[in-house]
C-alpha cells in the first residue's frame, strides 16, 4: 500500500544548525514526491518537488529510491523556517500526506 | 496567482446540524479536494472531484458528502454533524495531471467546532 511516514512529530534546533526532516515512502511505481509547508497562520503551500531538483529557501530534498526516502535538508536553519512540514506522495491525481513534522528554530 | 477561497474561517455548529463548507477556485482547475487536518494525523483526504458532477471517495468519506455543480465550486456537506468532526478542513485544487505531478493549491482552511 502507498504510504508516507514522517517519524518525527517535532524537531527543535537552534538558529544556524543543520536541519534534516525525515520522510520515507512506500510506493510500487516510480514516485513523485513533494514537500509542503505551513507557516503560522498561513495556508499550506508547496515548498519543493523532487522532479524540479531545485533549492527553495535553502532547502533541498533528494530522492533515494534504495532507501525509499525523501528527506528535507537545510544546512543552516533560520528562525523563519519554523513551520509545519508535510511530505507528500503523488498517486494519480491525489496526494498522500505524511503526518507532518513541526520544525522549531530557536534564536 | 491561483486563489482558493473557503466560505468561512471559523464555524461553530451543534451536534446533528447540517453543515455546508464551500470552496471556490479561480484557475479553471479540473481537480478539487477536501481534506481534514488533525494534529498527529496529518492531512486525510475526504473526497475529491475530477470534473463537474464527478466525485470520488477519499480515505475517510464516512459522515460526509460533496457536491460539484460548477467547475469552480466544490462543497463539503456534513449531513448530521458530530463532535468527532471537529477539525480543520482544507480545500485544494489542481490542474489535471498529464503524466507529470502537479501542485495542489490550498485554501486558508475552515476550523469547524461541533458542540
Shape of chain B: globular
Number of strands of chain B: 11
Please summarize the sheet with the most strands of chain A. Answer: 6 strands, mixed
Strand content of chain A: over 45%
Number of helices of chain A: 0
Overall mean pLDDT of chain A: 93
Any overview of this molecule?
- The complex is a heterodimer of chains A (107) and B (115).
- Helix content of chain A is 0%, strand content 46%.
- Chain A is built from no helices and eleven strands.
- Chain A has strands at residues 3-5, 10-14, 19-21, 24-26, 33-38, 45-49, 60-61, 72-74, 83-91, 94-97, 101-106.
- In chain A, the strands form three sheets. In chain A, strands 2, 5, 6, 9, 10 and 11 form a six-stranded mixed β-sheet that branches. Chain A has a three-stranded antiparallel β-sheet with strand order 3-8-7, with no helix packed on it.
- The radius of gyration of chain A is 13 Å and the shape is globular.
- In chain A, 35% of the residues are buried.
- The termini of chain B are far apart.
- Chain A binds chain B through residues 6, 9, 32, 34, 43-46, 49, 51, 86, 90, 92-95, 97-100, and chain B through 4, 31, 33, 35, 40-45, 48, 50, 58, 90, 92, 94, 96-97, 100-101, 103-104, 106-109.
